[in-house]
Amino acid sequence: MLTSLSGRFLILTVIFVMLAEVLIFVPSIARYRLDYLTERLERAQIASLALLGADGMIPEEVELELLENAGVLNVVLRRDAARQLVLSSDLPRPISKTVDLRDPSPVTLITDALTRFFMPGGDIIRVIGEPAQGGGLQIEAALDTQPLHRAMLEYGLNILILSAVISAITAAFLFLAVRRLMVQPIKSLVGFMMRYAAAPEDARRIIEPRSRIRELHEAETALRDLQTELSTALRQKERLAQLGGAVAKIAHDLRNILTTTTLLSDRLESVEDPTVQRVAPKLVASLTRAVNLTEGTLAFGRAEEAPPRLEYLPALPFLNEICETEQLSVADGGIRIEADVPAAMALRADREQMHRVVGNLIRNARQAIQAAGAVGTIRVHASETPETWVICVEDDGPGLPPKARENLFEAFKGTVRKGGTGLGLAIAAELVRGHGGTIALERSDETGTVFRIELPRGSVG
């Protein structure tokens, strides 16, 4: 019950109702004590007036009966300047406290009431007040507090029982109301989500907003929009998966055909006909690009990269190795590839995957410089912050065209090289994401291009 929304609401309702009752009880018990003492003074005044009306000619037994009926031990009435002991009896104990009811403050009334409520009775107090109906200047009465204490306890018990009944009834009504107005609609919303999750392709399971509660209606509307978008995306993904499977089969067969055609085209170079000699190299180059495209498509389609095996790598020798490997691909000395890395720096990454990422960026930069027929330098910078390791690949080549920047990390769209597949950067971005990092184009203009890789130092907690 404590784990359900309605159960917790029920408990909170009981707690808050009881708290409200406590706040009501404190001034009410103070009012009860004041009324009790005021009533005793009024009874004492009536008894004293009866005695004064008889000119004091009443037996002692009747005088004691008047005191007993008034609930006091003695009465002092001031009708003029003099105080007059009208009714009296032997006090069992000395008077311990004087209570003045003529102009008490609310704080005093509450404090005295709570003290009397929690303190056992049995002591004698003197109560001072103003006589009712102008029957004198002042009236005083001594009384035993034990009956007062018992009356206050009885009153408090009645208040407690009444509070419990009110709390139970209020909590029950609120429980039923919350269950009807909030819990059941929420359960219905959860039911729609679970039924949709079981078969998201079934359009009949998309929720239709019906709640008249504004917040729940907004939630249902948001859920409907989300389910609609998700169903559309799932259908599109399924179609793309089927299309991808078909393209992979076609590309596989096409690669075999193109490979055979390329081998046959190579033999054309031995033909001495001038026209054949002129056309054959172009034909072979075109077939080679077609083979590369189909092989790249197949590789991307079946690529299932394993999770990175993270290890700490000394950054300087690791990045130097990549630069030296790519430098071997430069036929002449027109392009220099170098690393600028702190000697003591180490980064945490998968050696093979990060080699592919950085190597691909260097290779793209080299090919861009070579395609422009220029010379240049490619630098690999590395640095670290308390949160990340940063690797930047910078070149002073011609920069990327605007169209290539728009789809830079999308497969088959981000290529700028004639005959390229555009898969290199898409795969690199996927590998970096597997490390929990990011790869981005930081700058690209006529002065060169900078790619930035950021790898997180901490683990996901």
Give a structural overview.
- GO terms for molecular function: phosphorelay sensor kinase activity.
- It is an enzyme of class 2 (transferase).
- Pfam families: HATPase_c.
- There is one protein chain.
- By secondary structure, the chain is of the alpha+beta class.
- It folds into three domains: 5-169, no CATH class; 228-302, Helix Hairpins, CATH 1.10.287; 311-456, Heat Shock Protein 90, CATH 3.30.565.
- The protein contains ten helices and twelve strands.
- The strands form three sheets. Strands 2-1-5-4-3 form a five-stranded mixed β-sheet. Strands 7-9-10-12-11 form a five-stranded mixed β-sheet. The chain has a two-stranded antiparallel sheet with strand order 6-8.
- A hairpin with a 2-residue loop joins strand 11 (438-445) and strand 12 (448-456).
- The chain is elongated and about 160 Å long.
Topology:
Layout: H1 5-53, H2 60-70, E1 74-78, E2 83-87, E3 95-100, H3 106-118, E4 124-129, E5 138-144, H4 145-198, H5 214-268, H6 274-302, E6 311-314, H7 315-327, E7 335-340, E8 346-349, H8 351-371, E9 376-384, E10 388-395, H9 402-406, H10 424-434, E11 438-445, E12 448-456
Parallel strand pairs: 3-4, 7-9
Antiparallel strand pairs: 1-2, 1-5, 4-5, 6-8, 9-10, 10-12, 11-12
Helix pairs in contact: 1-2, 1-3, 1-4, 4-5, 5-6, 7-8, 8-10
